[in-house]
Each structure stands twice: as C-alpha cells, then as structure tokens.
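4.2 Preliminary Data

To establish feasibility before requesting continued support, the project team ran the inverse folding procedure on a target of 461 residues. The structure was first converted into the token representation described in Section 3, and no sequence information of any kind was made available to the design step. The complete token record follows.
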C-alpha cells in the first residue's frame, strides 16, 4: 500500500483522498447535507471521511438513541490535537448522543509501559478534567478506565475467540516479537466500541467513533469482529432469473428456529400469510405484499421491506435467542493538526504542541516562534502575500481559534493579499490562545468538584 496507518506511530498521510480507495473510507461530503447542524470541523472539511455514518445521520434526524464512543491513551499531556476529539464528543452529546469515553490504560501500560498509577493520574488530570471543562455533561455520559471495567474485559475475551494471529498481523503488522499484552490491548479497543452498544440501552444502538485516520485499523478490526459475533448476515441479492432485488438473511451457526423467528416477526409487522416450512422450503405473501422463502440456512425476503425495517426485525430475533445483534460501528476521520514546528502535532515533542493545561504565557511564546507560510522579507510578503496552507498559526485559527467562518475567510484574504504580516497575525492568534487557556484552566479547576457526578473517585496528591 502507498500509505500505512499505524495507531502507535506518527502516520504521515500525504494524500487523504487516497484513503478512500486504499482503505475503503467514504468521503464525508457524501453525508454532510444530511446532518441537521454540522460541526465546524464538518463544514470546513477537517472531517474528511467516514464508515457507515448514514445510521448516525438517521438517528439524529429521527431523534433516536445513539452513542458517541471515544477513548484516550493516557500517556502524556492532552493537547489541541486531542481537543479535536473532545470537541466532537461534546457536540454529539449536544445532538442527543450518550457520550461513552474510555481511558485506554491497558494500552498505555502495554505499549508505553506506564504504571497503573501513572495511567490513572494522567487519565483524570489531563483528559477527563479537560473534557469536562470543554462542556461534557454528567447526564448522558459514561466515563471509565479499561482496567477497572470488568464488562469490557469480559467482552475483550469473547472477541479474542473471533480473532487469530493472522488477522492481527494483516491489520497491524504484528510479528513474533509482539508481546501478548499488546494484542490484548487491541482486543480491548474493540470491546470498548462494542460494549458501548450493550451498556447504555437495553438493546444495541448505533455508535459513532470520531478518530484520526491512523486509528482506522481499530475500526476495521471491530467491524469485522462485530459481523463475526452476530448470528445473522443480511445481504442484498438479485434473482438469477428475473434480476429483481431481494433480501437474504443467512444464519451463521444460529440456534435452531432462529430463522423461523425472523419470519414470524416479519408476519407480525406485515400481516398474516407470510410463511415457510421449518427446515424445508416454503413461501407466502404478507399483507403488504412481502414474499418469504425459508430454507434451513437462510431466509429470502421479496417485496416492499426496507433495510432498516429488516435490520430491526433481525436484531430483535437475535436478542431473543441470546445473541449480541451488534450494529456495525460507524466512524469519522479527521485530518491531523500540524505541529507548531512542522510535521504532526505530538505529545512527545513539547514545542510542537500546546497542552490544554499549559501556562498561557508559555503558549504565547510557542506561537510567536511557530512555523508560518510567510516570505523571507516583509517587503516580499506585502507584495506576494503569504501561504496560509503552509502556516501552523493559520491551522490554529482553522481548527480552534476562529469559530466564525467569515472571520476565517478574512484571515485567509489578509494573508494571501499581504495585508497582514506574520508577526501581527501571530500576536492576534497568541492573544486568542491566551484568553482561551485562562478561561479553560479556570473551568478545569472547577471540573475536579464535578468528578463524582461522572462516577470518578479521584483525589489530587
């Protein structure tokens, strides 16, 4: 592959559009018009791709239950790259989602070799506190640490029965040198996502996971596992003779009688007359013109039945027979922020990022030294303008410091026309950053008193 996505290393993505073809990610622009009140990251194209997001737009429009799930590996300071994810979690909660957030301390312990105590301190003081300060509400929120959540650990064990080493090697590049704790942490990532469908409501609901493109391996593995753990596979097929489309529900080791239950449930929705012989084949016509044909391993459905209607019927039948009935998790993919020194923003390079807990004066100094797209001389820049596409300060406006699109457009015009020089632009951005951090850190202090409302037992040392 021309590009490699690695969840534990700085993935250099030269062309985001290639991810559509190479990894099967769909353009987010395809679903943007379906979102009632899109976030600025969506409007500005910072969220560029998705998998299965149609179920989320449908839930938002219909005001039906759904979940936003995300996690943070507590290994260092939470910075403005992490704020991108936090902003989305808060936004989804405002749109009616239940926010489920896990601290990936198992991953931090296995991959970064941090102690459990360090994981807890960093998870709370850096990530959870800032998330609350940014607006997360205790109502409709679930916060937890992987190591302390037994249901997640139990589900990770079950997931392990559906994943072998070849799967891990193909997706993550694991080798014989990869230790088992690292692999278990990957299974726990999948359990985080799927557990969110089981822990909030009585039955599974759509879940969306906002991530950077480097986290897509986790999404691919989890979607594959969810399919393997479900009893049934729903396929859209075409009749070989007539070419007419129909639905086929196939049992994958489902208990005896489970397919018959689906057929009976269809009868309950569409009226009497839908039929079929248990164990053999048969057909019938329902009150709404729905024809079914039941065999030992699959049920074919012809007629006017939508995918959503069929999925709901299959889900209820699977739950009645003790299955999971997982809904394929949806995901969105956002661009990485550039570091202030160039390259990807990283917690391991302090000068490249601004931490959410950083001294505001320190942040001002970093911005004043940041890499820009300016010319070598003021005279040249006044004449030819700057290049905002190569400017890390403009990215701060684009991602965080300019909520108003008109303001952002004016910054672009002033830069490219030479009306403003880099020094003046930096001062303006530094002022906005300083004001934000002063306010945010005041809210961070207030957030400690709110921890019990989120079920977090923690005292600062």
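Position-by-position output of the design step:
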């Amino acid at each position: 592959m021309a590009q490699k996505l690695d969840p534990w290393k700085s993935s250099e993505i030269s062309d985001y559009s290639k991810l559509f073809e190479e990894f099967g990610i769909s353009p987010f622009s395809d679903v943007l018009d379906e979102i009632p009140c899109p976030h600025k990251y969506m409007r500005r194209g910072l969220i560029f791709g998705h998998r299965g997001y149609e179920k989320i737009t449908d839930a938002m429009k219909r005001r039906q239950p759904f979940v936003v799930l995300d996690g943070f590996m507590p290994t260092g300071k939470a910075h403005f790259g992490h704020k991108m994810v936090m902003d989305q979690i808060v936004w989804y909660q405002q749109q009616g989602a239940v926010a489920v957030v896990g601290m990936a301390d198992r991953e931090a312990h296995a991959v970064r070799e941090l102690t459990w105590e360090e994981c807890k301190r960093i998870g709370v003081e850096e990530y959870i506190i800032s998330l609350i300060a940014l607006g997360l509400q205790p109502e409709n929120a679930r916060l937890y640490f992987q190591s302390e959540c037994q249901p997640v650990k139990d589900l990770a064990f079950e997931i392990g029965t559906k994943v072998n080493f070849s799967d891990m090697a193909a997706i993550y590049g694991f080798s014989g040198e990869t230790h088992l704790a690292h692999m278990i942490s990957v299974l726990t990532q999948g359990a985080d996502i799927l557990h969110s469908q089981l822990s909030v409501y009585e039955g599974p609901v759509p879940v969306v996971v906002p991530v950077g493109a480097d986290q897509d391996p986790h999404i691919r593995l989890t979607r594959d596992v969810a399919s393997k753990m479900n009893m049934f596979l729903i396929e859209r097929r075409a009749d070989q003779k007539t070419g007419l489309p129909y639905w086929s529900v196939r049992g994958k080791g489902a208990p005896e009688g489970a397919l018959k239950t689906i057929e009976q449930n269809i009868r309950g929705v569409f009226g009497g007359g839908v039929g079929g012989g248990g164990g053999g084949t048969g057909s019938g016509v329902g009150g709404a013109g729905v024809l079914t044909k039941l065999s030992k391993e699959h049920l074919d459905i012809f007629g006017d039945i939508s995918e959503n209607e069929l999925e709901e019927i299959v889900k209820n039948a699977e739950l009645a027979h003790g299955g999971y009935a997982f809904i394929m998790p949806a995901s969105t993919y956002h661009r990485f922020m550039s570091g202030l020194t160039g390259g990807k923003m990283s917690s391991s390079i302090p000068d490249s990022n601004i931490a959410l807990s950083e001294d505001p004066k320190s942040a001002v100094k970093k911005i004043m030294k940041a890499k820009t797209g300016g010319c070598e001389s003021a005279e040249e820049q006044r004449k030819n303008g700057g290049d905002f596409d190569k400017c890390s300060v403009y990215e701060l406006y684009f991602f965080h410091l300019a909520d108003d699109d008109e303001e952002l457009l004016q910054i672009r015009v002033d830069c490219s026309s030479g009306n403003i020089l880099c020094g003046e632009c930096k001062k303006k951005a530094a002022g906005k950053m300083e004001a934000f951090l002063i306010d945010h850190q005041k809210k961070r202090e207030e957030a400690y008193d709110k921890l019990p409302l989120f079920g977090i037992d923690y005292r600062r040392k």
